[in-house]
Structure formats: C-alpha cells, structure tokens
Here is the input.
Amino acid sequence: MHKILLAAVVCSAVASSAFAQTHPTIGVGSRSSVIAAPTHTVSYKDRTQYDFDAEEVEGTVVQPDVDLITGRMKAHHQSLVRPRGSFQPELLQSVESL
Here is the structure.
C-alpha cells in the first residue's frame, strides 16, 4: 500500500513540474528546433453596442391545431364493503351460547 501511495506522489510531482515549464523563444543564431512564441494577438473592444431600433419585427402567435388531452378521468365505483346496520343477530347468538 505504501509503495502505491509513494508511486502516486512521485507521478504527480513529475506531472506538475512539466506544466510549470515555459516555452523558450528562438534566439539569434540558434539552429535548434525550439517552439517560438506566437506572434498574433486578438484584441477586443471594451464595449460592444447593438442597435435593434431600426428593425421592426412583426409576427403572430402560432398555436397547435389539436385538442389538449389532460389525462384519464378517475373512475367512480361503489364500495364493495357494506357497513352493518345492526349487530342484534350476533348479540342474540352470543347470549344463547351462555
């Protein structure tokens, strides 16, 4: 476990130092193949203003030509459980069994 951790630390140290290197520029009389610094640059204005007042936009509201179906209606069924109106027959049977 310690060897794996040590290898990960060494690899990350090597990789991070490679990203920190700068690109050398071509010197006078140098014949080696080194990377030259880019010569073109991009510049932007500080503020860009768009004028839409000259153009008039006209249009209409477009709606679909179909009916909207909201979903299935919930079915209404009668309950299959019917409450008892009276418990007298059960009371009489329990009294007779005594």
Remarks:
- The chain has a mean pLDDT of 75.
- Residues 81 and 87 are 16 Å apart (CA to CA).
